[in-house]
Amino acid sequence: MTLDLIACPTCGGERVNHALACGTDGCRFMEMVCYRCNGEGVVPRAMEQWIADGERLRQRRVEELPYRNQRTESARLGIDVVRLSRLEQGLEPGGAALLEMEAIP
Ligand SMILES: [Zn+2]
């Protein structure tokens, strides 16, 4: 099986993200292993679509009335809230199918 890979859109292929970490000795920037590519620097090309679908999923949730938080929305869609969070970030496939579900009646 060949995988079509692209540079990770989150870390730009650098394999790490920079995040401000605060502790008892103050705050500093730390390098964190990229959450999207797990430090690989590349992701499957299909992830571009997952990200686009996830963004639409998130937009639908926050723009439709009444406003729905992730917990409310995951219950409505019948999925785990952790999965919804990952879908909205485009970390896994499946957002497209949820987008096809009807809007709230
Ligand atoms: Zn990355």
Tell me what the structure shows:
This protein has 2 domains: 39 residues, no CATH class; 54 residues, no CATH class. Helices cover 36% and strands 21% of the residues. The chain is built from 4 helices and 4 strands, in the order ββββαααα. The relative contact order is 0.16. It binds zinc ion (ZN). The site of zinc ion has 6 residues, from loops.
Overall pLDDT level: 92
Q: How many domain regions?
A: 2
Q: Estimate the global geometry from the Cα principal axes.
A: flat
Biggest pleated sheet: 2 strands, antiparallel
Low-confidence stretches: none
Give a count of the beta strands, DSSP E runs of length 2 or more: 4
List of distinct ligands in this structure: zinc ion
The topology string of helices and strands comes to EEEEHHHH
Distance between the termini: 43 Å
How much helical structure, as a percent, in the residues? 25-40%
Note the total helix count: 4
Backbone CA Rg: 16 Å
Widest sheet: strand ordering: 1-4
Estimated share of beta-strand residues: 15-25%
- Would you tell me the structural class of the helices and strands? alpha+beta
Please outline the helices and strands.
Layout: E1 5-7, E2 16-23, E3 26-33, E4 42-44, H1 47-63, H2 70-77, H3 81-88, H4 95-99
Antiparallel strand pairs: 1-4, 2-3
This protein binds zinc ion (ZN).
Zinc ion binds next to loops.
Feature tags:
105 residues; alpha+beta; two-stranded antiparallel ribbon; 4 helices
